Fold this protein.
Amino acid sequence: MEIFLYRKGSPKVEEGFSSDDLPELLADKDNLIWVDLFGETPARVEEAKDLLLNVFKFHYLTVEDCIETRNQPKVEAFPNYIYFIVHGIKPGETGPGNFVTKELDGYLGENFVVTFRDQKFRSIRDVKQQIRSSTFACSRGPAYLLHQILDHLVDLYMPIVDDFDTSINVLEDSVFEMRGSGNTLLEEIMGLRRSVARLRRITARQLDVLYRISHGEFPQIPEHILPFFRDVHDHLLRISDLSESYRDLVSGLFDIHFSVIANRTNDVMKTLAVLSSIILPLSLVTGIYGMNFDHMPELRSPNGYFLTLGAMALLAISLLFYFWRRGWIFNRDKVKPEDAANP
């Protein structure tokens, strides 16, 4: 547990307080108190639960939700405070598709901010460094301090989104160039689609929370602070829109992948069909001359073998020429005259 105290007009933020000091600090409405609870062990979870119930007098249902994990993002209003749940994310060790979600619970009151977490948050660490070096965020009140926490939390979504953009571009190149086996590419596309859909679900649920916080629903957030929360909402909305567009792109990769496979199959079948069409008349000629009748033209001719081979070669060349003229083989995209005039 870390307790930060800002006294109105003070040039610095004070630290080093214990839970026993909180009742006296909270009694002075000119103070701003931020209590950051880190429940990484069962003992600290029980300590945090006792503090939330007996010192801050929060509703026991919100305390139960606070110490539990895997809750949906939400915000609830009470007479003297609001309770919220949001989620941060961090990159996975094996790529953007394996990003990890982290739950952050919190309370906002008239002169306090309380946060509870069971994992490390880079956004929490950055805001602590910020208020230690400058009291600007604290001097604007607890709502602005909460804005700083949520703003840093949402900003850390962007590296994940950028990684998704890079992964999609690489996967598109792999699909067009058919690098790797078909099953491997399908597995990569499926994994990326699931991850993008997961990111979309996370952002969509938190958009409602930030929308309610940023549109004047709660008296704990002054009107002049609302534009800052709307800015955070806009950032998350952009991330949500990007994840939606990425989901469409990844879904389109399925069609592209199967189209590339179908085109390759068509090329193979076309080649086999052309070879069969050429070999068929040659097999006809050799089949006729292999019937071994005595009375056949050129059967006893000394040049009959070479004449037959020449006729077969001429027939094969004629068929190739005919297929080419029809555009069935060796075809290239024809350039229109107007396109050639204006490259």
